[in-house]
Amino acid sequence: MPFSPPLPAPHITELPWCPPERLFPLCREGGASVFLDSGGPAEQERHRWSFLCPRPAGRLTLPLAEMHHLPQHLRAFLAAHAPAGRPSPHLPELPFTGGVIGLLSYEAGMAREGLTSRHATGCPAFTALACRDLFIFDRREQRLWWASADGTPPPGQPATTARPDHPGPSLTPVAEQDAATWQAAVRTVQEYIAAGDIFQANLTMRWVAPRPETLDLHALYNQLRTRCPAPFGAWFHTPDFTLLSASVERFLSLDRQGRIETRPIKGTCPVSDDPQQNDALKEALHRDEKELAENLMITDLMRHDIGRVCQLGSVNVPQLFAVERFAHVHHLVSSVTGQLQRDHDATDLLAATIPPGSVTGAPKYRAMQIIDEVESSARGAYCGTLFRLGWDGALDSSVIIRSISATASHLQVGAGGGITYPSHPEREYEEMCLKAAPLLAVLRDHGA
């Protein structure tokens, strides 16, 4: 049976305001920590809220073989750490006051669809952290709360001692494929399209750098969040794996009334400092038939995916092909909404939709088979999803793009794009490099 969340009953205390980066050093302590870090203009709702849990109360890790039982495992973990009792009637209305924050890899989504990758990965299929005590930041109103399931007092603010101003160890990311090899893979995907196997596939590759023993991941994340502010920025740390994310893409949101929204992103163009040139770039993107077709196919795919768990007739597309600006690029963004079936919950929604449609292709199952055939490494966390699931059953999540994955031995950055029959391999390669460039610059400049 779906998990029926108890009424949220954390103890919530408002604290004097301080910005999220002021408390991020608390994540240096302990073996795991998580920081959902909304960057960019705080007046916009998607950039408004941040959440920092410096001491998760528990961790759940599942292998690929258990992905067919994902909803049951996740419900049980959420219920095991839920607060007891009833809330005060005077609790502030906040979007997340505790629950589970978790990471599902791309390969976990493949497993849910009955597929197995031919590539090995150092990223766990599924890791969830129980967040019973956390800071809640309203960046727009500059207000701060501490929520605790047991009434534990907040940790003190870290000291403001300045760190030595010297470069970290040198980081040199290397592409796993050269331009010619990757463009040949584009043509292979186009051959599958011409044969009628698929309409589109999202083709990606990775850059890899050895991880020096002296690397300070906290300092690296501070550089990433400063240079690439993003609505779905995140630090997700465990002893075995760390994700540093500057994602711009929401995957799924589910509110307490069961209303679902997903916002697929497909279509990219540069940002210009010249206002007239910038308007011209946006207009060209909005008229680009290839980019529009790519976005439309992924929007239709997401309609299908959420339709698996939505009430009949409730799925709609209230926004199609909107051009939205992010830190370094413009994207075409659409919106798909629906109403969750009454006997389903957020865990069913995740299980029905991973991996995200915007990073697979259409039809999804065949596209994933072809992707695994033509790509030369596992995606791991990249193209997976990072989510928060509250005690009240509400969900928000991002597609893990624009990110750095860190294992004990190496750092990895991924980028890619949607391939259709009219795609130009050289142009697709240039677009992929445009997306990766800010992240690669963060790595290369770290030791400068």
UniProtKB/TrEMBL annotation:
Coiled coil regions in record:
none
Q: Give all residue intervals belonging to the Chorismate-utilising enzyme C-terminal domain.
A: 180-435
Transmembrane segment boundaries: none
Anthranilate synthase component I N-terminal domain spans which residues? 17-145
One of the Pfam families matching this protein, by short name: Anth_synt_I_N
Kindly give the SUPFAM superfamilies that the UniProt entry links to this protein. Answer: ADC synthase
- InterPro entries annotated for this entry? ADC_synthase (IPR005801), Anth_synth_I-like (IPR019999), Anth_synth_I_N (IPR006805), Chorismate_C (IPR015890)
Renumbered residue ranges of the record's region Disordered:
148-172
PANTHER family attached to this UniProt entry:
AMINOBENZOATE/ANTHRANILATE SYNTHASE, ANTHRANILATE SYNTHASE COMPONENT 1
Protein's name in the database: Aminodeoxychorismate synthase component I
Source lineage = Bacteria, Pseudomonadati, Pseudomonadota, Alphaproteobacteria, Acetobacterales
